[in-house]
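Q: Could you fold this chain for me?
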Amino acid sequence: MSDLDTQQEVFSFLANPATHGGAKVQRIDTHAASVFLAGDRALKVKRAVHFPFLDYSTLDKRKQACAAELSVNAPYAPDIYRRIVPITREAPGRLAIGGAGEPVEWAVEMRRFDETRTLDHVAGEIDEDLADALGRAVATAHAKAPAADAQAWIAALGTYNDEHVEVFAQHPEIFPAEKIEMLAQSSRAAYAKIVPFLRERAREGFVRRIHGDLHLGNIVLIDGKPVLFDAIEFSEIIATGDVFYDIAFLLMDLLERRLKLAASVVLNRYLAQTQRVENLDALATLPFFLSTRASIRAKVTMARMERAKESERAAIARSARGYFDFALQAIAPPKPVLIAVGGLSGTGKSRLARMLAPDIGPMPGAVILRSDVERKALFGVGETDELPAIAYNAETTARVYAALAGKARRILAAGHAAIVDAVFAHPDERAAMAEVAKSANIRLQGLFLTADLETRLKRVGGRAGDASDADRAVALAQERYELGPMDWQEVDASGSPESTLKRAKAALKLVN
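A: Sure. Below is the predicted structure, expressed as structure tokens.
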């Protein structure tokens, strides 16, 4: 029997409820694998196919691919990936799962999860808390990922643009020629600009063995927590990349679904979790990475057109064009801006910064620098750990503001936007932010939030699990502050967060 004939026999065997003790079987097919779901188990079989980017054409190659999938994914999801198991030929010719006979096929055995809980199915549930957990999960995965040889990946990255252009040009009814050329030229220029930087990132250890396919469909909620799975195992080049190239896929997927706030929270949590200033410099790569990820998705979407029904073609074309338009938008980001949000404790600075960020600057929005978080990092403690009073003396506070200024400079130099969230009670602190903006040849946009003492006391008293250590005593002491001349725009923050956001956008001349 040929491999294809044997596979058909195996697939029929695995699709039979009797094989699984009578349990109902659900089969899911992709271009490269077939998955059989029964009871609490999932069995994934590589299809006997050969594509330019993968080769599963022989039994030995499929066994190797199963072993590679287990090795690559077990660190991401140890509770999902169990083992590889043979499908064997027993006497008198019957098939068995993990029998003593000769293996005729191999499968990855996994713990079955609720497939309706992958994030592409529950995108509407991705609130700020879940987005924060996503950022943490990706940062944790990247911390464990081993360094990889970057040379082949950087070279391959440069070829993707031409591959996309070739596909787009075949469909002028969907992708206008002049826009294809715009995307091609912008992508080539961006790639040429970042290549030296990517080589430096590789030397610093930021090019790693990444997930490689980090979209919402490959993240599942288990016990309410996001778990990454189905990482690339079939290509070392595709599975290699800068960590920012990896997270760019997730950010692109969120943004394309119009989940702007979630994307902003993911990026900001990732940056806060990794605590590497080099990642602030890497913001310069995001426009190219986001655009490339969207172009790849547009090309993959178009590949469905060949086998699609006539009734499906219009929807496929719209989806592909949407990714194409996203790629065009991402590769031409707006100029960076610097916004400083000041105000006494309890005025809602941090909440306003989070709500503003998605609409500020290049995708997926401004990077937020918060003095409370910076102070905790300075002392090497967790964000919600309480610091002693000595950590708030004048010398330490000056160090915190200097660190905020230094990071803001790096973000702006990378072409990205920043929002700095701190009290900014002293004129020299506000002047320092103006100097940062001036050095980047932009104008500082400063907001100072105000609210009555009763409101501020109520807010600080109701905090829990927050980076700020400000309490009632701090809020009362701040009443004695001499703020000095105020050249920032004052914003009434005594109402709801939504009303403060509306006033702040008006002050910044942003469209509500």
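A (continued): Residues 3-112 form one domain.
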